[in-house]
Amino acid sequence: MTSAPARYIDGQTATSHDVVVTLEPGQITITDGTGRRFAFWPLGSLHCIDRWPLRRGPLRLGSIDAPAARLTIDDLAFRRVLLGSAPQAGYPRHQPLPPSLRRVSLMAAAMSAVVALVFAAAPWYAGPAANLIPVSWERQFGGNVISDFKHANGLEVCAEATGDAALQDLTERLAAAADLDYLPSVEVIDDATSNAFAFPGGNILVLRGLIDKAESPDEVAGVLAHELGHTAHRDGLKGLVRANARMVVLDALLGGALSAAGALATAGNTLLELRSGRAAEAAADRFAADTLRRANIGTAGLKRFFSRMVKIETATGIPSYLSSHPASAERVAAIPDIDGDLGLSPTQWAALKGICGPDPE
Amino acid sequence: MSDITLRADATGALLPVKTAFVHHGEGGPLFGILLKNFGINSITVGFYRFWAKTHLRHFFWTNSEVFGDRFEYTGRGLELFVGFLFVMFIVLIPIGLVTNVFRTFLAADPTAQVMIGGAVWLVFMTLVGIAQFRARRYRLSRTQWRGIRFFQVGNEWVYGLMYLLFIALKPITFGWITPVANCWLEGYRTNHTYFGSEKFRFDGDGGALYGAYALAWFLAWVTFGLGFFLYKARELAYIAEHSHLGPVGFRFEPGAGSLAGLWFGNLALMVMTFGLAGPFVQLRQARFVARHLEIIGTPDFAAIDQAPADMPTIGEGLAEAIDLGGF
């Protein structure tokens, strides 16, 4: 039987009592100054008060049976003996798993849950959030984005009087049919890739390659109607809100370890990487079909364009239409067959084809 | 309640009993904790910081001793994490998004930018004040001595708005509001702090500090601001002198020289280690306080009862989110 002096605290008042603690089989007894035993703590009920027990400090014991009380033991020899008989007395309560494993799995679970929540919930809040932003703001911002984008990528706009007029005509016709709030601005970029983009604020870029490879003007009309759909649905803006939200969350979660500054600065390029997602694409397709019908333009061109795109492989550099507008046979089939004209007169079509000057090939 | 316990010295004169804090923390074990924290923080890209902070705080609390017993820290990393998540979703993300949106979409309008900046600053400063107050409340609620809990009451909005007011007034008054501001904030915190059933009191208004402040202010130009150590030393001494716990008083008189030594030493340490030596700076400060802080008189321990059980369950999420640093 070993004994040692100790200090007993009852946890009800701030007094500390000098006591003697004795290790007996199965329990420790606490004796006051007069030799009276006033507490018995079973060995199994013992635990350490400190979450990380002090190696070079007193051992502070608590008992499950006496929640508020503490026993402070300075005596090293007694401590060694006690911990030999009751090793769990050196550990805090509630430690079913080794601390590191528990912490790591908890951390990993929480981390994944939070990040998954924000990323998965993005489509849900992006829409309402984007709708809060006034259209006039979007247009002003969109203007800045697109000029930054053109500048950053060294893109040249093709401008030629008759070609511009033809394009303007088509745009106005489609915009009127779609009943848009404002007339989008459509520009042709001198690049051989076959692609088109809708930036926020109704700024649409069509690459020359798309016009070159189109067999008839209703293809261009169809693609343009599709891009107008993105404009009407403010898809570019929603993508930006999503990317922004993810950046803000990741930045906050990781305590600033990531820099969120880059995201907004390269808004234009970020948009390229943003896939609107199938829902947005399908919605834009429906909008296109609807608009074409109301404008009396046939959908054959749009369907032909998509079918051709499905067969073409992605080019390097600015991605081709597919990588930013995932197409599939289902999408082609989903577009209804509507009869109508081609959208542009033969003269206008020739003018549009020549908008970027003589054919370099 | 007993009066300040006096004892007779060799000449028979009565002197108040003075007790000091003892800090047992050592660099070796601290470095071990630091290394572990650094490793896991790196792997988890900073996600581990809540648990890292908890472990450090536990180290400092359990190595601080007074009247023969050490403090206990019962906080958990999970509490800090949950508090942070709470704040992140309810405060941080909405404010961050709204600010970003306004900044982006009104980029071309300078007046709007200034107004946005102003609004953000106002909100942020109030949040800093509130965060400080809440963080202290959490820390105190998880601090125990001899099993008796500390706690803090008071209205965080009052504190936050006064904090904002003083921050705004500082440049306007060329800093002259500082003594009153610091004393008001300190007083609000202290007067709402309890150790069990015993309440802390602060009865200073800062008026007596203006002599020292004026000296430091006028000397600032000549001494490149070093004069402010004189003021700070005086301010700390004043605060201690006017703080009470029941019949017990405090003294903290390190002197401007030691204070400056501490400050420059910490600065050098941080610069040389690129900020990684944070916990060692805390250790230096803990030892400094233990060296110079005195408790005058002895509390009537038997008369101090346990605190009521109503405690905040999530921890300083706002402070964590705004990253106030420190203890």
Task: Explain the overall architecture.
The complex is a heterodimer of chains A (361) and B (327). Chain A has 361 residues and is of the alpha+beta class. Chain A is 50% helix and 17% strand. Chain A has a 7-stranded antiparallel β-sheet with strand order 4-3-2-1-7-6-5, covered by helices on one side. A 4-stranded mixed β-sheet of chain A has the order 8-9-11-10, with helices on both faces. In chain A, strand 6 and strand 7 form a beta hairpin. In chain A, helix 5 crosses helix 15. About 7% of the residues of chain A have low confidence. Chain B is 58% helix and 14% strand. An 11-stranded antiparallel β-sheet of chain B has the order 3-13-12-11-10-9-8-7-6-5-4. A two-stranded antiparallel ribbon of chain B has the order 1-2. The longest helix of chain B is centred in the middle third of the chain and has 32 residues. The mean pLDDT of chain B is 86. Chains A and B meet through strand 7, helix 2, helix 4 and helix 8 of A and helix 2, strand 6 and helix 3 of B.
